[in-house]
Each structure stands twice: as structure tokens, then as C-alpha cells.
Write a structure and sequence with these properties.
Blueprint: H1 2-14, E1 20-24, H2 35-43, E2 46-49, E3 67-70, H3 76-88, E4 93-97, H4 108-116, E5 121-124, H5 129-137, E6 150-154, H6 167-171, E7 176-180, H7 186-193, E8 202-207, E9 215-220, H8 224-230, E10 237-241
Parallel strand pairs: 1-4, 1-5, 2-3, 2-4, 6-7
Antiparallel strand pairs: 7-10, 8-9, 8-10
Length: 270
């Protein structure tokens, strides 16, 4: 009887309801997929993936009979009917996006359209490039007494940004600033950043994080544009500009022996 219940529970776990699963693929390394994302990918009937931004290595382990649809050359008007049709045919559909769906994934309009069509959907978060960059660089982007804020942004290009989020105004905070989708406009970005950050501020130029051909360069801010052009980088590049990338002797109070909190009160002898 116990064995039958175990088999029944296992079968329930393997079932994936007909719906659209908007999955964050992370920066490119399959080992950085969340466990939930991996389970869904392994069970999905249909996978639509942005093949210009998500490496094929992310698809290792998917079902041999899964329908794989590349979307780099497709518009939303071409992608959406496919998702609706497959779900209405009682199939589970994965919409696989690079990084985390909440950042620069053009996910808002997809969720809106799915909701209007009455199609159930779920969002599975992923690791973003800025997190992968910090891990590779072995740094913490929020260091007490040095920097406590992270700004994720991009420079205005073919798609504009609100006037209140213009890059120079954000740079004025001198926070850890992670710049997406800006390699084609790196000269302008450097000029705006140097209005507030020192010319020697360390910048990590991160190319195709998590991909087999990943590269990271650490340069002074004043060399950011020249290095980008020298390496011929035009896409899939993240810039991390932060005081935390330099020598930082600061220490958090959290684990300091003189710091007390609910779970570690100071002894009376202290």
C-alpha cells in the first residue's frame, strides 16, 4: 500500500498542467537554473525560447519529443497564437527567457495578452546577469559604509528611458550601477557616468556571462568605451560600475561580536 501511494505521489509530481510557464533561464549556465525551472523544462510539451539570448545548453535534459520553437526571428504577434493554440490543445508551454523575466524580458505585454485571452500562466524567476557577475567577481555589491544601493538600468537607445531615469542622474547616487543593453552606446554611457564617478572607478565588463565563451574584463571607468570597442562587443554585455570592486576594508556589523540582535543578544559580561 505504501508503495502504491509513493507511485501515485510521484505521478502527481510529474504532471504539468496546461498553461504557459514563463521561465527565467538565468545568464546561460544550465547549473544556474532554479530547481523549479529545470523540472518544468524537463516535463514541458512545448518550449519557445529566445535563441539569440538563451544558449542551447539550457535545453539539455528536455523531453526528446518536446516541440522546440526558436523565437529570435519572430514577433509577439507570431509567438502569442502558438502559445494560445498549444495550451488550448491541453499542452504545457514554456516561454524561456534569458536572465530573470522581471528584467528587460518584454514579458509585460505577454502576460497582459495571456490574461486577456484567459490562458493560465506562471512566472518562474531566474538569476540575473548582475548576480552572476558579482559571483564571478567574488564581490558583494552592497558593502556597509561604502555602498548600500544597487541600480539596474540601461542607457537610452532605440528604446528610450523616462527623463527621470536618465543615466547621469542615476550615476549621481554613486551606487553600484549595473548597466544592461548599452554596449552599442558605450561612449555616451561612459561620458554620463564620468560626470559623477571617478575616472579610476573599477568597471567590470561582462560578456556572455554563463556561456561557454564568457569573458570578463576589469578596467577603470575611463577605459570602458575603448575596451568595449577593442573587443568588438555590441550585445550580451553587462557593465558593473561600483566602489565595491576596489579594495574595500569595511566590515558588516551583522556578525560583529559587539553587535547584538534577537538571535544573538550580548552577554551581560560584555
Amino acid at each position: 500500500m505504501k508503495t502504491q501511494n509513493s507511485k501515485s505521489n510521484k505521478n502527481q509530481e510529474l504532471f504539468l498542467a496546461p498553461a504557459v510557464y514563463i521561465v527565467g533561464a538565468g545568464p546561460g549556465d544550465p547549473d544556474l537554473l532554479t530547481v523549479k525551472a529545470q523540472k518544468i523544462l524537463e516535463r514541458a510539451d512545448v518550449i519557445l525560447f529566445a535563441d539569440s539570448l538563451v544558449p542551447e545548453q539550457i535545453l539539455q535534459g528536455v523531453r526528446a519529443d518536446a516541440e522546440i520553437i526558436r523565437t529570435a526571428n519572430k514577433t509577439l504577434e507570431e509567438i502569442l497564437p502558438v502559445m494560445l493554440e498549444r495550451v488550448r490543445a491541453n499542452q504545457s508551454v514554456v516561454r524561456l527567457h534569458s536572465g530573470d523575466p522581471s528584467l528587460y524580458g518584454a514579458v509585460h505585454e505577454q502576460m497582459q495578452a495571456l490574461g486577456e485571452a484567459g490562458i493560465p500562466f506562471e512566472v518562474i524567476p531566474g538569476i540575473s546577469a548582475f548576480q552572476a557577475a558579482a559571483a564571478k567577481l567574488k564581490v558583494e555589491l552592497t558593502v556597509p559604509g561604502v555602498v548600500q544601493t544597487i541600480i539596474l538600468t540601461r542607457i537610452a537607445g532605440r528604446t528610450g528611458v523616462p527623463d527621470t531615469e536618465e543615466l547621469a542622474s542615476l550615476a549621481a547616487h554613486r551606487a553600484s550601477l549595473c548597466l544592461y543593453l548599452s554596449a552599442r552606446h558605450v561612449g555616451e554611457a561612459q561620458e554620463k557616468l564620468m560626470q559623477h564617478y571617478p575616472a579610476e572607478m573599477p568597471v567590470a565588463i561582462c560578456y556572455r556571462l554563463g556561456w561557454p565563451d564568457e569573458k570578463i574584463w576589469l578596467v577603470p571607468l575611463q577605459e570602458m568605451a575603448a575596451k568595449t570597442k577593442l573587443e568588438k562587443l555590441v550585445r550580451t554585455t553587462l557593465y558593473a560600475i561600483s566602489p565595491a570592486l576596489g579594495e574595500v576594508p569595511a566590515r558588516s556589523r551583522l556578525y560583529h561580536p559587539e553587535h547584538s540582535h534577537l538571535f544573538r543578544p550580548l552577554s551581560r559580561e560584555s
